[in-house]
Amino acid sequence: MRTSSAVLVVLVGVLLTTVGCSRQVAGAAQPDPHTPGTSVTKDGFGVIAGDPAAPVQIELYTEPQCSHCADLQHDFGKAIGSYIDLGQLAVTYRPLTFLDTGSGYSDRVSNALFLAAGPQTTGPAFQAFVEDLWGHQDRSGKGPSDAEIADMARKSGVGAEAADKIATGATAMDVTAMGETNFGYLLDIDPVDTGTPTVYNLAKGEKLDIYDDNWLSKLMASV
Predict the structure, then answer these.
(1) From the centroid of its chain, how far is CA 70?
(2) Strand-pair category, 56-62 with 89-95
(3) What are phi and psi of 143, to 5 degrees?
(4) What is the residue extent of each domain of the chain?
(5) In degrees rounded to 5, what are phi and psi of residue 199?
(6) At 58, phi and psi to the nearest 5?
(7) Orientation of helix 123-135 relative to helix 146-156, angle to 10°
(8) What is the pLDDT of residue 101?
């Protein structure tokens, strides 16, 4: 019995669909090339989450153990991630470690941020990682272990290679030099009320009033 041409078309279509799916599953997941990525700043002490050519560019100075920094991520983190994903916003995270008391908590979290940055990690995934880290603060303790930080990274969508490096406690850069450099930048922005979190509008060269509940929407509407 002959198979009609219509049936053959259906069979070929099913075969191609099956083969295509098997190819997608076989390889390691790759970030969407159209989604804004992450990179390290030229000075080596900041992580840019988002399109470097985004119309809105800010710096965010933050300390892993700062409760107000956690509040900022809780209140605005999701919106920040959405603007990054849309290519409208780029956030340069500049960590500080002045709340460390010998446990190395802030050092390890800051180092992990730089390990997470790179071609395998999208801007939205990095932002989700920041939200998770600041959302699970252990200000009275030793902080999360490298393995726990790596687990947060994977769940946030950070690249597998980067997450593996976080798990082993690999060194991304000189954390002491990072803290000193970023604190110097922060002091230049506001030598009177110097603290975290501080958000700085790079285009206008001004510190933003993040205690205005509408600061982010006003910032994005101003472009």
Answers:
(1) 14
(2) parallel
(3) 85, 175
(4) 36-221
(5) -115, 130
(6) -130, 160
(7) 140
(8) 85
Length of the chain: 223
Task: Please give the C-alpha separations between residue 52 and each of 41, 105, 137, 215, in angstroms, as whole numbers.
Answer: 10, 29, 29, 21
- Whole-number Å distance between alpha carbons of 44 and 28: 28
Contact status, residue 120 vs residue 161, Cβ threshold 8 Å:
yes
Cα–Cα distance measured from residue 33 to residue 37, given in angstroms and rounded to the nearest whole number = 8
3-state secondary structure of 199: strand
Rounded Cα distance, 206 and 204, in Å: 6
Burial (CB count <10 Å: 0-12, 13-18, 19+), residue 41:
middle
Q: Which residues of the chain have pLDDT under 50?
A: 1-29
User: The tokens of 144 are what?
Assistant: 């999360």
Q: Which two tokens stand for residue 34?
A: 């159209």
Average pLDDT of every residue of the chain: 88
CATH 3.90.660.10 fits 36-221, yes or no: no
Q: How far apart are the first and last CA of the chain?
A: 68
Residue 8 CB coordination number (10 Å): 11
| Distance of alpha carbon 160 from alpha carbon 91, whole angstroms | 22
